[in-house]
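Appendix B. Chain record.
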Amino acid sequence: MATKLKKSARRRGLHWLDGIDLGKLRTPGVYADGNNLFLRVVRDRVPDKKVPGKLVPGKAIFRSWTFRYSSPVHRVMGPKGLLIGKRRDAGIGPLSKISLGVARQIAQRWHDQVALGIDPIDAKESARRADVQTLQAEKQKRLQAAMTLLKAARAYHEKFVDASTADGRSWMREIESAKELQEVLDRLPGEILASEWLKRLSAMRKRVPTVGLRVGQRLNSIYADLLDDELVKSNPIAGIKPKLVKVAKKDKVKVRSDHHASLPYGQVSAFVAALRAREGAGVRPLEFLILTAARANEAAGAQWSEVDLDKKTWTIPDDRMKGREEHLVPLSDRAVQILKVQRRDQPIGGNFVFPGRNPKKPISNDTMGHLLEKMHDEKLKVDGVGWIDAKTKERATTHGFRSSFSDWAGEIAQRARPELARRDVIDACLAHQEANQVKRAYSRSKFDDERRELLQWWSTYIEPKTATVTKLQKKTARK
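Structure tokens predicted for this chain:
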């Protein structure tokens, strides 16, 4: 019940709070001013120091304005069974920020709304929502104006792509380095039409099919995310997918997401010569990978506990193999030489054959990939070609050297010695899984001699034909 302060004001029904020092009111209660305006005075409640869990009145006093009314919209059942307006209290604000005069103006405005059948709380909430929508729309416009395609790609990469993996690191690099995208990276995504994307991605898929396919898929994901965030009105990449497929079929481009560009085996010797002329962390592991026809992660993660230099073998445990089966690799003379020099130059106690900057961790797969990419770029500047796959015209990859070995063994070695370079021996060198378990077990146990001879022959074949200063002889002991 409202506290009554002034008899003359009470008789008028208005301005009951005139002449009162409202800032000094300390008695808790609800003080009426008239016209549905009230000043609410409450005392803060604090935990009782003597009785845990009990609250007692504190020293702080809070004074705030309230407009109390019967809603013209919201109805409840009255005491006589009639529908009456629901009583509602609309907060105006604290006395410390809103004076009595201002509070009266607001109360009068809301009083007028009630008379017109408008609920003040509903109207206030509608206005608040409208303000929020306006602010969001303005924010959206600012984001759209600032979000270039390159920024959108980087934002998507940061949110959804694991940058610690090899694929994660190449994700942005392939987008940023694509020559077909250079003119659009600094443009707003919503301004680039589907027809322009069709032209650019078609050209890219003709030039580098697999990279073009990946970049197209990534752009589709970027646009889908922008569409979800309402930063673009449509996804132009989704609409041109069928036409991109037709372009690939028309030009007879075989697009495979699992294809790895490989260097023709006839060029591997020249590549090894160029590799040995360099220095750096990736040089030895990359040549070791080529000699053993191993996968990048297998070579990078090689451990001394897996190596037997006396028997010239490298046994990769099943948990590091793609097929989850232990794989024995017969080592050629050159591979053994690399391991011996690597051990000589390593600090005592390290278990990884090719350690990274942290001796307790192996070198990253990307170290070899980046080295190959750098060598390609350097050669490209000299001869305009670089180290590329002759069929797809893509830059050669580390995984592609397995195909180089396989092609050499299936063509050169098989013609010269068909009894040695058989398909099952080649597959055993590559650790390709045999569907037949009996035959698979036989292959592992029976082909050791044949595989040793074939890998040694491969080492001889790719040995640089011209005299090359070998970096293995230069001792680079770590300090």
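Further analysis of this model is presented in Appendix C.
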